[in-house]
């Protein structure tokens, strides 16, 4: 990177150390330059940012876009959490849908940050568990990914989710049941309806006991698949008002 902006001695020293790195954090620099105060490090990084050597993600987190090949790692550096929803489905090779949104599940943070062409969306969940380390990322397990997708379906759609389930070869259905048993009844109803539809309409290998276990839950109130006023078809077994239609839910199958 060639710049016309003059670098001071300290800036040049810092730049030589970080120029090949993708993500630069103030606290990491402290181990290399222990004599510099936090305020001094901040000023140096900010100066490199102002001179367009770096870009800033957060007050003390910077990055070099020329070296960035994984914005998922940067998203996790910004806020503690795990990669989830459709972003996790991508990492498992279960969807080719790309909308340049990186979903991070957190304990209590709701925030959207725009970086380059990406939108980093942080979503809180009270089910902050079921994540693993995979390819140097903290990411939800396959079963937890599917559970989170059913729980927060408004951030994707059933067509993407049903295709992902169909393509997944190693779902531990018993683990998925455990997650669902801890969720609201409405999530269980919608999941049971969708999974049973997928099993009936396609050749997806879904064990009968999975549907039977979900159907054991006492269901009182009817629910809509989506919050809209479209015409719906009522399923008595799950007390679900399907206001989407199987043609859309399984659009990839009927193509």
Could you explain the architecture of this structure?
With 255 residues, the chain is α+β, with helices and mostly antiparallel strands. It folds into three domains: 55 residues; 72 residues, no CATH class; 99 residues, no CATH class. Helix content is 42%, strand content 18%. It contains twelve helices and twelve strands. α1 crosses α3, α2 packs across α3 and α6 packs parallel to α8. The longest helix has 17 residues. The chain is elongated and about 75 Å long.
Total count of helical runs of at least 4 residues: 12
Task: Report the end-to-end length measured between terminal Cα atoms.
Answer: 48 Å
> Gyration radius, to the nearest Å?
23 Å
Number of strands: 12
Q: What secondary-structure arrangement, pairings included, does this model have?
A:
Layout (H helix, E strand, L loop, with lengths): L8 H10 L4 E3 H7 L5 H13 L4 E4 L2 E3 L7 H8 L3 E2 L1 H7 L9 E6 L4 E5 L2 E7 L6 E4 L2 E4 L1 H10 L6 H10 L5 H9 L3 H17 L6 H8 L7 E2 L8 E3 L4 E3 L3 H4 L1 H4 L1
Parallel strand pairs: 5-7, 10-12
Antiparallel strand pairs: 1-3, 2-3, 4-5, 6-7, 8-9, 11-12
